[in-house]
Design a protein that fits this description.
about 260 residues, alpha/beta, seven-stranded parallel sheet, 8 helices, 7 strands
Length: about 260
């Protein structure tokens, strides 16, 4: 299927590895020019080089910056696909805040979580959405979490911040933007094989005294698919939501979790 987005420009946040990189790879494979943003310069450079080799027909640029800081956003947005161009696709993505007990979190912890997982995506949407509307095409995907639908107790910071973004999108996506060719959707990952999952499970193993593999197998057993997801298949879903074929989908929370969420809705 031709997704109809060849030649578009995409800004992909948190794109040096994991789900962000999976999205960047899928978009580049469809002929989309991508700008990858991440804080770690070395990992980012490696990702950019690999993607250029894999997709020689597209432009692949890297911006080493903290997207949660105003100067980081300015650096990323100034690329804008080159002089006189602008982004057609925005993939909002940031690492989740640490797990813990809400009793131990202070105001600074909450502000940091909100900055990364709610306010930064909103700032980027605000910066790009009107240009998208003027050109008659825009796709915004916010990578949030399956915890938005089924909150996880120890992830209170993430539950709160990402749910705030979800509420914002629910209203904004249904504004006049929907009639101007701009869609805004949230993509909710479950357990995917990423560094984030490995770190979380390693922490659980250390706390329980169990071997890491035993903890991983226990987690897999709770998923109807009996496996963890792969960043590449997450990226494929993202690319479809960015396509011309998904123009009638907006304001949705698309859950990719191997069937782990047990609800009907």
């Amino acid at each position: 299927m031709d997704l109809g987005i060849k030649g578009k420009w995409a800004l992909v946040c948190g794109a040096s590895k994991g789900l962000g990189l999976g999205c960047a790879q899928a978009l580049a494979a469809e002929g989309v020019n991508v700008v990858l943003v991440a804080r770690g310069a070395a990992t980012l450079d490696a990702a950019v080089s690999a993607l250029r080799a894999a997709a020689p027909g597209v432009s692949v640029l890297g911006v080493a910056a903290d997207i949660t800081a105003a100067e980081g956003r300015a650096a990323a947005l100034s690329v804008a696909g080159g002089p006189g161009k602008a982004f057609d696709i925005l993939i909002n993505n940031a690492g989740g805040p640490p797990p813990g007990d809400f009793r131990s979190w202070d105001r600074d912890d909450w502000i940091q979580a909100l900055d990364a997982n709610m306010l930064t995506p909103i700032e980027l949407i605000k910066a790009l959405v009107d240009g998208m509307a003027q050109r008659g095409f825009g796709r915004i995907i916010n990578i949030t979490s399956g915890a938005v639908k089924a909150p996880i107790g120890i992830l209170g910071l993430s539950n709160g911040a990402r749910s705030g973004l979800t509420g914002f999108v629910a209203g904004t996506a249904r504004s006049p933007l929907a009639a101007q060719g701009v869609t805004i959707n949230n993509l909710l990952p479950g357990a995917f094989e990423t560094d984030r999952l490995k770190t979380t499970l390693a922490g659980a193993a250390s706390k329980s005294g169990q071997p890491l593999e035993a903890v991983m197998e226990s987690r897999r057993s709770t998923i109807p698919a009996k496996r963890f997801g792969q960043p590449q298949e997450f990226g494929a879903i993202c690319a479809f939501l960015c396509s011309v074929h998904a123009g009638y989908m907006t304001g949705q929370n698309v859950l990719a979790d191997g069937g782990a969420y047990p609800g009907t809705f």
